[in-house]
Amino acid sequence: xxxxxxxxxxxxxxxxxxxxxxxxxxxxxxxxxxxxxxxxxxxxxxxxxxxxxxxxxxxxxxxxxxxxxxxxxxxxxxxxxxxxxxxxxxxxxxxxxxxxxxxxxxxxxxxxxxxxxxxxxxxxxxxxxxxxxxxxxxxxxxxxxxxxxxxxxxxxxxxxxxxxxxxxxxxxxxxxxxxxxxxxxxxxxxxxxxxxxxxxxxxxxxxxxxxxxxxxxxxxxxxxxxxxxxxxxxxxxxxxxxxxxxxxxxxxxxxxxxxxxxxxxxxxxxxxxxxxxxxxxxxxxxxxxxxxxxxxxxxxxxxxxxxxxxxxxxxx
Length: 316
Ligand code: ATP
Fold this sequence. Notes:
The structure is a single chain. It contains twelve helices and 14 strands. It has 316 residues and is α/β, with parallel strands linked by helices. The model is unreliable at 308-316 (pLDDT under 50). It is elongated and about 80 Å long. It has helices spanning 45-52, 74-80, 96-106, 111-124, 140-152, 170-185, 197-203, 221-226, 240-249, 270-282, 297-304, 308-315, and strands spanning 5-16, 19-30, 34-39, 60-65, 68-69, 81-84, 158-162, 189-193, 206-211, 214-219, 232-237, 254-255, 261-265, 287-293. Strands 6-7-8-3-9-10 form a six-stranded mixed sheet, with helices on both faces. The chain folds into two domains: 5-90 and 138-226, 3-Layer(aba) Sandwich (Rossmann fold), CATH 3.40.50.300; 232-293, Alpha-Beta Plaits (2-Layer Sandwich). Adenosine-5'-triphosphate binds at residues 16, 19, 21, 39, 41-47.
């Protein structure tokens, strides 16, 4: 593990009886970056987070988090990390300020330091006005912000965010993303699991895709998208004559679901679009509509993870 590595995992295995959940996975996360773990429901994301955050033991492999071995130095790991999961630590009966002060007590901060840290976090998370109201009255977005603020009381260097924006409205999601970016700018490392691929695309420096207990793809969002074929231009024609002429002209075009449309393989670059439009213009072929489709993380996810129908058959 180098000094720049916040998380170093080699050969991580976890089984429940006969059921192999993690089948030897390697993960390396650089300090001050966002690393996102993607996988279908049941792929083992939460299990990974639980092992990395010392909540459960691995069946095998070596795992170092914030410079410490989770098996032999779990207390040192715990002191360096924060975890916000799908189940919030917020106490509904307490108000926002009291929730934060409670965390300050748990982290053994002095009364004065606890007050100072609480005031600072209320400010940072835009909860000053709500600080005196019971958490039970908070909206979903406010609750998530309070939950994350509570995790930060102990100034963790590595934060595990398990599905941080599930169920939030678009504005609250964006606020959460902004907070994550600010944390990373301050040098914190974020290990993010999410079911929203646009979230991983937006935030993650690197992504690993988990499937059937193995990491089946790993890289920057751009690298992963480049590995996936499927970039194309979709052309829709005014009439069947235009369609037929275009089909003859553009040898590798394939039919679209729309009867008057064609898909032409393309990397979506301006140069290739210009060539295509010039070709159509030269033949005076009229195009009603042109749209460019580049692979997104949805395509990456679908290409790398198992076919759910197939999985059903094999697990029966
Ligand atoms: P989701 O997106 O649904 O939260 P996940 O990727 O986080 O999925 P995990 O919760 O890590 O998935 O579960 C992975 C697999 O491990 C599942 O098949 C689950 O049934 C199994 N599993 C998890 N905990 C246990 C346990 N305590 N005993 C037995 N099997 C378990």
